[in-house]
Design goal:
Shape of chain A: globular
CATH topology of the largest domain in chain B: D-Maltodextrin-Binding Protein, domain 2
Radius of gyration of chain A: 24 Å
CATH superfamily of the largest domain in chain B: Periplasmic binding protein-like II
Shape of chain B: globular
Helix content of chain B: 25-40%
Mean pLDDT of chain A: 87
Structural class of chain B: alpha+beta
Distance between the termini of chain A: 5 Å
Structural class of chain A: mainly alpha
Mean pLDDT of chain B: 92
Strand content of chain B: 15-25%
Distance between the termini of chain B: 47 Å
Helix content of chain A: over 70%
Radius of gyration of chain B: 26 Å
CATH class of the largest domain in chain A: Mainly Alpha
Number of helices of chain B: 17
Number of domains of chain A: 2
Low-confidence stretches of chain B: none
Number of strands of chain B: 19
Strand content of chain A: under 5%
Largest interface: A-B, 51 and 45 residues
Largest sheet of chain B: 11 strands, mixed
Oligomer: heterodimer
CATH class of the largest domain in chain B: Alpha Beta
Number of domains of chain B: 2
């Protein structure tokens, strides 16, 4: 099958996936106990005010009608309004999403840059000191809760040593770059504002590093395992026998084979990190979607909860498609079908 | 290859670490706020962070400074004998940020808008005012003819922020300008809006020639409200010098902040009152002796020690320092023998009953008292069912005596310094249905006293009425009076002009602050 047809087919498959996701999220959001209108209206609100709010947000309608009405709005580009902030969900997602995307992407890049070499070295020096060090480090990072590491890093590097800022995407007295993508690193580069680029990189570094630890551990371990398996293949023996330098064998042939599994883990981590960024965002005051999602969940604010779930669903699907495409690039034997 | 990568990493690290960053700027105060400012419409927004913004962006007729209520837009006032007609003369030099005068018409417009929208702040006036109440007698004289006399009327006026009618009318939309004013100010206050990054930070810029002048030796050029919800982050930011003031610090941070020579820890008793309201209309807790037994079964000292925040125990229905509090009341202390004596006078002298205790889900401040009471009541052979609930469901359960639980943990904060603000909404039977009155207390004499005090101008007579009302309430024990939360705030020593205000307990009055050698 042609790759274009394959991609189109995968994109088409996103629609039923998202509909399923929306039904699930809608149902869960509606069955949790609590009265969102009471929460939004405040304790002194009269029954009339609460009723008016219910009517305004359609909560007085039967659930199937509420769902159909929500989905109809979704396809028109109207993702509803937050019951609590009374702002459009789309504009809130637009405001908060870039911060999470930037943080998650940076964390995945760090995890990959550190994890793949660590896995390779670990496999190359199997059961020797570098391997032990890499495995202990992986175990350490996967075992320690990220919020604890975040607080330790913030206190050491931010407060005690003063090397990095405590939190936020930029110092509060620095205005953010004019938004093109909402990603400060890219926006500042586009505007050739290198000072803001460096400052925002400085703010991003520790949160992204801490967020990357869990992914680093899984990438290291899976790379090591795949490398060890690949190193035992016949083609490696043959290549060594004909005198190809070991480094060339490792980086040109073995790693490429081993990367299929690593790419899968990286793409899965991208989704997990995005969802797991909530704690890191809270500790580093990172104004992203995580904090917004927590607030929406605590206030039973249905429309933002739905909006976040749909957005994450889309991102997961897109990352999965990209991963499939990368498989094909890494291993030409893979056929799309 | 590896050497090249290492070299690039090294250069990048040095660049990152040495990049100069503007952390602070003279006379711009960086404030770490625990809460978002998600609405700055005076007709619909009300909580501690919103009020801090409203006080900065708008002016009100009166203002709280410390524990006092001071005239602000008002130059002088007159009131008739039964406290039903209030006439205020306004300062003639007060101007909105666009230069137009803050006149009587603007006050009338703002008041009527508040009533028409009927948002959270309007409850103060809904029972005493309608659309004909406010009237402009001349350009700078405004009169309020209340629908019923109300002696503590002035106490409500710090929340009457005056909006610029021209700006509201120009952005009226179909919701009386609510959408616009939610994020845009139309006021005359000491500060104007700067950067407004929703969910992140809010900048306030000082009005250079503010009509009311500045009260301190100097004033801020502005301040930035930075939302920081995590306690460790707040502490680290403060100690790293990234913020000058941090509100609502937790008790665990106290030691480190006190140990820092550059910081001050301010802690004051407040009026955020915690009570266990007992449903006086339901089975079991309708019996006054059972209520007394419950109140004596609470180990107050143990509860105080177990809380992770600093609290002050209540000496009866009213906090000790609150205006009109009666001294020397015979209020309950932890005494199981006394509890047994009271229980012996009920139809359940040997216990064997079960009471429900409702609290906010996972709120440790409310779980701890429940667990301690559970232990005390177990000694009386009374079972306590701990029932967690979401706050809106708790509010809904207080709608009627039938749905109200036996015991419910409620926090209340009087909105102004007057016994009426503390007692009326909790103990007048007209207030049944609100969470404040979830004990469904009814005593005709108390009702009479609270009603009469509202329309009595003479301070001494009013005080006597409130004293009698508190004595009756204390004797009938509709609640277990627990504690008031102490309020803490951490400041850099370079921040000057801070004064604790029990009615703005969590935050500061920015217009009174200035900075020296920060």
């Amino acid at each position: 099958m042609n790759i274009r047809v394959y991609i189109l087919r995968r994109i088409a498959l996103i629609i039923p996936t998202l509909i399923g996701l929306s039904v699930l999220t809608f149902s869960i959001a509606r069955i949790v106990p609590g009265d969102p209108v009471g929460l939004a209206a405040g304790p002194r609100a009269t029954e009339e005010i609460k009723e008016a709010l219910r009517r305004e947000f359609g909560f007085d309608q039967p659930l199937p009608i509420q769902y159909v009405s929500y989905m109809a709005g979704l396809f028109r580009g109207d993702w509803g309004e937050s019951l609590y902030t009374r702002r459009k969900v789309v504009s809130e997602l637009r405001a908060f999403w870039p911060a999470t995307l930037e943080l998650t992407t940076a964390a995945v890049i760090i995890a990959t840059l550190l994890g793949v070499p660590a896995g390779v070295i670990s496999a190359m020096y199997r059961n020797r000191l570098p391997d032990h060090v890499a495995r202990v480090l992986s175990l350490f990072f996967v075992s320690f809760p990220s919020f604890w590491l975040a607080m330790i890093f913030q206190t050491w590097f931010g407060r005690d040593l003063g090397l990095f800022p405590i939190g936020k995407r930029l110092p509060v007295l620095v205005s953010p770059p004019a938004p093109t993508t909402g990603l400060f690193l890219i926006d500042s580069l586009v505007q050739l504002d290198f000072e803001t680029f460096l400052v925002s990189l400085r703010h991003l570094f520790i949160p992204a590093l801490v967020l990357s630890f869990g992914a680093f551990a899984s990438i290291t371990r899976i790379t090591r395992a795949s490398m060890v398996e690949a190193l035992e293949k016949d083609f490696v023996r043959m290549e060594r026998a004909i005198g190809i330098p070991y480094r060339v064998i490792i980086f040109k042939y073995v790693l490429r084979n081993a990367l299929i599994a690593t790419i899968t883990v990286i793409s899965l981590n991208f989704g997990w990190l995005m969802a797991g960024a909530i704690l890191i965002e809270t500790i580093f005051d990172w104004p992203g979607l995580g904090l917004y999602a927590v607030h929406a969940s605590l206030s039973l604010d249905f429309q933002p909860i739905m909006g976040i779930a749909i957005l994450y669903g889309v991102v997961f699907s897109v990352v999965n498609i990209l991963t499939d495409i990368v498989y094909g690039i890494l291993d030409p034997r893979i056929r799309y079908g | 290859m590896f050497k090249r990568i290492l070299f690039i990493c090294l250069v990048l690290s040095i660049l990152l670490i040495t990049t100069s960053v503007v952390l602070a700027q003279d006379d711009i105060l960086l404030y770490s706020g625990n809460q978002d400012i998600d609405n700055i419409d005076p007709a619909t927004g009300e909580n501690y962070s919103i009020n801090a913004a409203l006080r900065s962006l708008y002016d009100a007729l009166y203002i709280y400074r410390g524990a006092d209520t001071e005239p602000h837009l008002v130059e002088s006032h007159e009131v008739n004998e039964d406290a039903s007609v209030w006439t205020f003369k306004l300062h003639e030099n007060a101007v909105f940020h666009d230069g137009s005068p803050v006149n009587a018409e603007a006050v009338v417009y703002s008041f009527n808008r508040l009533l028409a929208i009927s948002g959270p702040p309007s409850w103060r006036w809904e029972s005493i005012a309608d659309e004909n109440t406010a009237e402009a007698l001349d350009e700078f004289t405004v009169q309020f003819s209340l629908t019923q006399p109300y002696a503590p009327f002035i106490g409500t006026l710090p929340q009457l922020f005056v909006v610029n009618p021209a700006i509201v009318e120009a952005n009226l939309g179909d919701d009386m300008g609510q959408t616009y004013l939610k994020e845009n100010a139309a006021g005359s206050g000491p500060f104007m809006q700067g950067r407004w990054e929703i969910g992140n930070l809010y900048e306030f810029i000082a009005v250079p020639d503010y009509w009311a002048g500045w009260t301190g030796d100097d004033h801020l050029d502005g301040f930035i409200w930075i939302i920081q919800r995590d306690h460790t982050t707040k502490l680290n930011s403060l100690l790293a010098g990234e913020v000058h003031v941090s509100d609502a610090p937790s008790g665990t941070e106290k030691e480190e902040i006190i140990a820092s020579p550059d910081h001050i820890w301010e802690e004051h008793g407040g009026f955020f009152v915690n009570t266990l309201k007992m449903n006086t209309q339901s089975e079991y807790t309708s019996d006054v002796n059972l209520r007394k037994a419950v109140a004596h079964a609470m180990n107050y000292e143990e509860m105080k020690a177990a809380q992770d925040v600093s609290v002050t125990l209540m000496p009866g229905p009213t906090p000790a320092d609150f205006v009109g509090a009666v001294e020397g009341l015979d209020y309950p202390t932890y005494d199981l023998d006394k509890a047994r004596e009271y229980l012996a006078q009920t139809p359940w002298p040997d216990g064997g009953i079960s009471l429900d205790y409702v609290y906010v889900t996972e709120l440790s401040h409310e779980i701890i008292p429940g667990l301690i009471l559970l232990e005390g009541l177990a000694e009386l052979n009374i079972e306590l069912n701990m029932i967690p609930m979401l706050w809106p469901d708790m509010v809904a359960s207080c709608a009627s005596p039938e749905t109200g639980p036996h015991i419910i943990n409620i926090y209340t904060l009087p909105p102004f310094m007057d016994p009426d603000a503390h007692l009326y909404n909790q103990y007048h039977s007209d207030q049944w249905g609100s969470f404040n009155s979830c004990s469904f207390y009814q005593n005709e004499r108390v009702n009479e006293l609270l009603d009469a005090a509202r329309v009595t101008g003479d301070a001494e007579t009013r005080a006597a009425m409130y004293t009698e009302a508190q004595e009756i309430i204390n004797a009938e024990q509709p609640s277990v009076w627990m504690y008031t939360l102490d309020n803490s705030i951490a400041l850099h020593t370079c921040v000057k002009g801070y004064r604790y205000s029990p009615l703005y307990p969590i935050t500061v009055l920015f217009q009174d602050l200035w900075m020296e050698d920060c």
